[in-house]
Design a protein that fits this description.
single chain; about 250 residues; 3-stranded mixed β-sheet; about 25% strand; binds citrulline
Length: about 250
């Protein structure tokens, strides 16, 4: 059975962390409606959704992706780079402990799940402002016994590795070449965002399709032309908080 763990929009989302975006007013009611559409998209792709309750005082807590990374063998409970986000970790670790043994990233390591792109047995870790070399090293130590190779991956001009590149089929990644070098993803087909849609690289492969944000129609067409089933969702309010479609769930396949 495939599960998706999500968390309700926080009423304090307006106070979210921002790195590459200017602050804009977030309508949390609209964000909740959009979140329901996102959940419906995951359900349409075959996921049973586990809903964690709202955390009223944790503005970024909808972005569960950043606090854990789930593998078939183990769940990694992260230590987010932004101190304001560290109180988000425990409740997600507790939920995941029902499904996997949990290994924790310890201080002074930092790791955001948004920086961890898993492609088969290759795990790419973004060298971002949020994830430090110590965090990546702890991830390597946790995963090497299971046969994973962990690759430090430079990025530029965006928050997380998965703002720059995501997997869209078992054999292909979608990326913005201004943010990350395609040559790093050996053996994969490389699809690029339309140049007019530089923020369009964050797609969520789920079941036999891809959940993809509205607002990037040219890149969506590129995905469809590649034979990909694209399920489009409006995540406009989440985007104001510098989030995207991968950030709002943890998939347990
Ligand atoms: C943050 O800056 O941490 C949040 N406002 C956005 C996190 C988005 N998460 C992600 O890309 N994985």
């Amino acid at each position: 059975m495939s599960l998706a763990v999500v968390r309700a929009v926080s009423r304090s989302m307006q106070r979210c962390e921002l790195t590459h975006r200017d602050r804009a007013r977030i309508d949390t009611e609209l964000a909740s409606k959009q979140h329901e559409s996102y959940i419906a998209a995951l359900e349409s792709l075959g996921y049973d959704v586990v809903r964690l309750p709202e955390e009223p005082d944790l503005p970024d807590s909808i972005f569960v992706e950043d606090v854990a990374v789930v593998f078939p063998e183990v769940a990694i409970s992260t230590r987010p780079g932004a101190p304001s986000r560290r109180p988000e970790v425990e409740s997600v670790a507790a939920a995941l402990s029902e499904h996997r043994p949990v290994v924790r990233i310890e201080p002074p390591g930092t790791l955001d799940g948004g920086d961890v792109l898993v492609v088969g047995r290759d795990v790419y870790v973004g060298s971002s402002s949020r994830s430090n070399p110590g965090g990546a090293e702890q991830l390597r130590n946790a995963l090497e016994p299971y046969g994973y190779a962990v690759h430090a991956t430079p990025l530029r001009g965006c928050l997380h590795l998965k703002s720059a590149v995501t997997q869209v089929t078992p054999a292909a990644v979608l990326l913005n070449p201004d943010h990350v070098d395609g040559g790093r993803f050996r053996g994969m087909d490389i699809l690029t965002v339309d140049p007019a849609e530089p923020d369009g690289a964050n797609a969520l492969m789920a079941g036999d399709g891809v959940v993809y944000p509205a607002g990037f129609p040219r890149t969506a067409s590129r995905l469809a032309d590649h034979g990909i089933r694209v399920v489009t969702v409006d995540v406009g309010e989440v985007r104001k908080a510098e989030g995207g479609v991968t950030c709002c769930s943890i998939l347990i396949d």
